[in-house]
Amino acid sequence: MTYILELQPARSPVYRYGLSQPVQTLRFRSVVLVPDSDWQAADRWLAATFRLVVTPAAMDPLWSEAEQRVAQWAWRVLQLAAQLQRLARIPVFTPGVITRLPAAADGWQVEAAIAQVAYFPAADVSRCYEAAAIVLSGYLANPGHFAASEVLYRQLEATLIGPLCRHNPTDDTTLSLLAAATVAELPWQHLGQGCYQIGWGGHARRLQQGGLETDSMLGIQVSGNKVLTRRWLASGGMPVPEQRLVATEADAVLAWRDMAAPLVFKPASGEGGQGVSVDVASEADARQAFRLAAAVAGEVIVERQVAGDTHHLQVVDGELLFVMRRRPAALVADGHHDLAHCLAAENHRRQEEMLWWCLPPLPQDQAATACLARQGYDWHSIPPAGTPLFLRDIPSNIDGALDEDVTGLVHPDNIALACRAARRLGLAMAGVDIISPDIRRPWHENGAVINEVNHAPQLGAGTRYRCYLPAMLRQLWPAGGRIPVEVYVGGAAALATARQRQAAWAAQGVSCFICTDEFCLDVHGQPLAMTGDAAHRLQALLLEQRVQGVLLVSNGHWLAAGLPLDRISRLEVVAETPCGQAPPDAGQWLALLQPYLQPSADELQ
To answer: Does the keyword Nucleotide-binding feature in the UniProt annotation (predicted)?
Structure first.
């Protein structure tokens, strides 16, 4: 059965129904629902299977019992479809709203206003709603058939989530930032190819793949090259480990002989800890370590091993955001069972997590066994409760890491070093990894070094860093990302009022633009050549970083379809004469526009 009947994307952004995202119209058909559908059981299943907390459906008191039953089903379809889109990295953070429930010859139909994110194909969006309808209907018909969540996950990954993710350039970090921005009521818009603008006008910033537009392109390229990064930092008077770049096994052996052991061998490029060997202390180890690293990248870095742990210092706009002490993947003992049992229990817990959010399983291989032995344990040991047992020599994105928040412990000199490294590469956002035996002591006292610099934070699901997202938003968008947008309804008198307002703002140094139904005026009140209708021109002004305020003057019927923004800071209906009456349809405009009037303390008065 095909559930989706029609998806009607809007030609330009339109905000309606008090939703935080632009909307489009979806029509879909309902299944035949039995009167005794167990919605509470369905909600528990959605929470356990999809980590989806179902909010109560808004019910029209005039709906019949049958209509309310359809609305209950449709509301859950909308919420599940929104979650599926987020899993596919489509930034949909509102399920939408049911607008109509028309009866049809073959049952009920549902009309809904759902979120629209520009430049995401309508066919991809429809597939998410179709899948949500199929999954929810299948569960209601036969709950026992959906007991094995992993089977359902694999099917969705193979047929929906995986294919959508493969051609979606939006990364997990950007998705997390957009989600936090939505909670904080910061406006944002997709500009295409995974590039987003958060904020309006002069308070806007654009980002892509977790990096900001103010990041130096050269700095991004340099940070992707470990050897070049070390050279740039060393030339700036910053501590880096002694290293050599080798291309053959023979050169690797020569480097091992010349440099004091222990050494680290790592690929010259790559990520995730692949091909890295530590504690290389013999010629045989050096040969093996070279082959392991060379399998990842042609050239291999040989460097002197530095004592201490890796500390990730996240710098945002020249200031420290947080510091995480990164240690290798670890198993925490429970004090009652041997480590083999603890490992099996932990991996079972991880396997039960939703497929797209689960952590990698902890290893039980030869390397893990050797790591335990060096700590004085084996798989039959029962260490005290809470003891972390490391299963790898280094933290990595592949095997995982044990992160500890040490933001309050870091020495100011180490913060200054991280900020210097970010400035050296021209990065507004930079993750600076410092290897230090004690991050509480200055780097120049304990032999600490900068290991690498990453140009964008990793803030996806499962990372401890996400708790710092609100602070990051406040740092990057201190004014809440908004500029004042005022609406004056009327004709010539409304335009005159807007011109007076523009002049007053100009006297305060505020770059204010005017947008009318027919034309736009720049900050000096001169005509501004722009294409498109009033809605497109208003949206274009919000994307201009030189714009610090917008005055919309309109008496046009296009307002009835909704504004291309979610909030205005002032609304005024202007009569044509000082003693004249308001326009005859002023009440209509006030009723339509009043929901957009939500002034913020951060906006200009």
So the answer is: yes
